[in-house]
Design goal:
- The chain has one domain.
- Helix content is about 80%, strand content about 0%.
- The chain is built from 3 helices and no strands.
- The longest helix is centred in the C-terminal third of the chain and has 41 residues.
- About 20% of the residues are buried.
Length: about 110
C-alpha cells in the first residue's frame, strides 16, 4: 500500500504533463508546463525506483547518493520550469484581458 501511495505523485505529475500538452495550441507556455511536469514525473519515478532498489539491498550507498542528488537537482529544475510556465500563462491572460478591455477593440467598446 505504501508503494502505491508513493507512485501517486508520479501519476499526478504525468497527468499535469498530459493536461498541459492538450492545451499547446492555446498557448506556447503549455509546452513549457508539459515539459516541467514531464521532468518532474521522470525524477519522481527514478527516485521511487531507487527507493525500491535500496529497500531490497540491490545497490551501493554511493550510487544511491548520486541518484538522489541528481533527482533532487532535476526536481528543482522541474519546479522552476513549472513556475516559469505558470508565470507565462498568467502573463498572457493579463495581456489578453487588457487587450479585450482596451477602447477601440471589438469587445472593449
Amino acid at each position: 500500500m505504501r508503494d502505491a501511495i508513493g507512485w501517486l505523485g508520479v501519476l499526478l505529475a504525468l497527468g499535469g504533463a498530459v493536461l498541459s500538452a492538450l492545451h499547446v495550441r492555446r498557448t506556447s507556455w503549455a509546452a513549457v508546463l508539459a515539459g516541467g511536469f514531464g521532468l518532474q514525473a521522470f525524477t519522481m519515478a527514478v527516485a521511487r525506483i531507487a527507493v525500491v532498489l535500496v529497500s531490497r539491498g540491490g545497490t551501493g550507498s554511493e550510487l544511491v547518493g548520486t541518484v538522489f542528488l541528481l533527482t533532487s537537482l532535476l526536481g528543482m529544475l522541474a519546479s522552476g520550469v513549472i513556475v516559469a510556465g505558470v508565470a507565462g500563462v498568467l502573463s498572457e491572460l493579463k495581456r489578453s484581458a487588457r487587450a479585450a478591455a482596451a477602447p477601440g477593440t471589438l469587445s472593449g467598446g
